[in-house]
Specification:
By secondary structure, the chain is of the alpha+beta class. The protein has one domain: Cyclophilin, CATH 2.40.100. The protein is built from two helices and eleven strands. The radius of gyration is 14 Å and the shape is globular.
Length: 152
């Protein structure tokens, strides 16, 4: 049976389930599970359209290999991207980091300053997506929100 995580925004009273795609992205899922709970700030992307992300750095960052790569994402997709996969030191003075992304609309394309990037598709939002859509649109205007990803 597939493992399920929970995405929580405590300040909003929000929870949604994330179904892990362990067969398609085993290393990414394993790294995520070993890193739980994951805490951070959920922010709206600058370049990727209808997508919100958690950025992890330093001891909070888990590195996964490229697997189950996609460039075309769909609403409900949960993605992983490591900044040093293709271009270490892409931006001068910025250390390596990881992004966990949540696609909330059709107008999303994982992108960075040099164009579209491939991301690991490792999960699907399997509950409460309508509320995630509304909350993500608010984050675009209101700013970052505290977020926790944990076991169900």
């Amino acid at each position: 049976m597939a493992k399920t995580l929970v995405l929580k925004l405590p300040g909003e009273g929000f929870e949604a389930d994330i179904l892990l795609l362990e067969e398609e992205a085993p290393e990414t899922c394993r790294g995520i599970l070993e890193s739980l709970p994951i805490r951070g700030r959920l922010v709206h992307t600058n370049y990727s359209g209808q997508m919100v992300t958690i950025e992890l750095r330093g001891d909070d960052m888990m590195k996964a290999p490229k697997e189950n790569l996609v460039k075309d994402v769909r609403p409900r997709d949960v993605t992983y991207w490591y900044s040093y996969w293709d271009d270490p030191g892409l931006i001068h003075g910025v250390d390596e980091y990881v992004e966990i992304g949540f696609v909330y609309g059709r107008f999303a394309r994982p992108s960075f300053v040099r164009g579209v990037k491939a991301v690991n598709l490792f999960g699907i939002v399997s509950s409460n997506f309508g509320s995630l859509f509304s909350l993500s649109r608010r984050i675009r205007i209101e700013g970052a929100k505290e977020v926790i990803i944990d076991s169900k």
